[in-house]
Design a protein that fits this description.
about 280 residues, about 15% helix, Immunoglobulin-like, alpha+beta, elongated, 2 domains, four-stranded antiparallel β-sheet, 16 strands, Coagulation Factor XIII, Chain A, domain 1
């Protein structure tokens, strides 16, 4: 009987020891591994494993001047709301179109974001008046967790303007009854300087038939004075300011002639000073 109790006691001791070891492994080994995994994840904020969404950088492109004059420059700046700590930031210009119709982007400046710091800028200069397209592109490093992005914008370089300018253009020359030709000519007057009491004047220097119709684009009728079969047309008291633009139309009929310029020379004057001239 004593032997039986001794065997049972030994079995209970072995079972208790096994249970204790299993508990220790669970508390020390498994829980320790889980804790270390959490610590590793928290130590790497760029870790987007486990299906989490990539980090938005809030990339934007800005210009110090969207309409600079030729010969000057505009500063292109790329900005982030969340600045990545790796990958490349590229400031690019559109320089053509590929065979597949996509835009060709040429790098103007490239920043390595592991060591570059804001501001991310490039000064662009042009001597040609036209519109240019630019792009800020962010290319993330593999595994960084940041999302690729790009933003585009346009800048228009404008010509330096001084004084006034007058151009003449034939709108049409159509045959009409009686073997006549009806002409319509447009005179466009622009200015980037202030002038007051300007007079725009010219003549129809060929044989005309009937009346001359003179009307500006803003509905002001011109003064027409006849001299035999010629006419002098004018608009007076025009006040020009920077950015001024208006077109003046003159319509008349005459026998078809070989003259390339049936209107002669036209002038815009402030007092006795000629500020612009034009002819066909």
């Amino acid at each position: 009987m004593k032997k039986f109790y001794s065997i049972a006691t030994a079995l209970l001791l072995v079972a208790g020891t096994f249970t204790s070891c299993t508990k220790d492994l669970d508390e020390v080994g498994l829980n320790s591994s889980a804790t270390e995994a959490v610590r590793a994840t928290n130590a790497n904020p760029n870790n987007n494993g486990g299906g989490s969404q990539p980090i938005e950088t809030g990339l934007a492109i800005e210009f110090s001047n969207a309409t600079p004059q030729v010969g000057t420059y505009t500063t292109i700046e790329a900005k982030f709301t969340a600045v990545p700590t790796s990958g490349e930031l590229r400031i690019q210009e559109a320089t053509g179109v590929a065979l597949d119709g996509s835009t060709i982007w040429t790098n103007l400046r490239v920043f390595n974001l592991e060591n570059a710091t804001a501001p991310f800028t490039y000064d662009y200069t042009s001597n040609t008046a036209k519109e240019y397209s630019f792009r800020a592109q962010y290319v993330p490093k593999n595994g960084s967790g940041y999302k690729a992005a790009h933003m585009e914008g346009n800048v228009t370089f404008i010509a330096i303007c001084t004084g006034a300018n007058l151009t003449a253009q034939q709108v049409y020359a159509n045959p009409v009854e009686g073997g006549l030709t009806e002409y319509k000519v447009a005179f466009t007057l622009t200015s980037c300087t202030e002038y007051s009491n300007v007079k725009l004047q010219g003549g129809v220097s060929a044989t005309i038939t009937g009346n001359v119709v003179a009307m500006s684009a803003d509905g002001v009728e011109g003064d027409v004075r006849y001299n035999n079969n010629n006419a002098v047309v004018s608009w007076s008291e025009l006040n020009l300011t920077p950015g001024y633009s208006n077109t003046f139309y003159v319509t008349f009929r005459m026998e078809k002639s070989d003259k390339e310029d049936p209107i002669g020379d036209w002038t815009a004057k402030e007092g006795d000073e000629v500020i612009a001239t034009a002819t066909l």
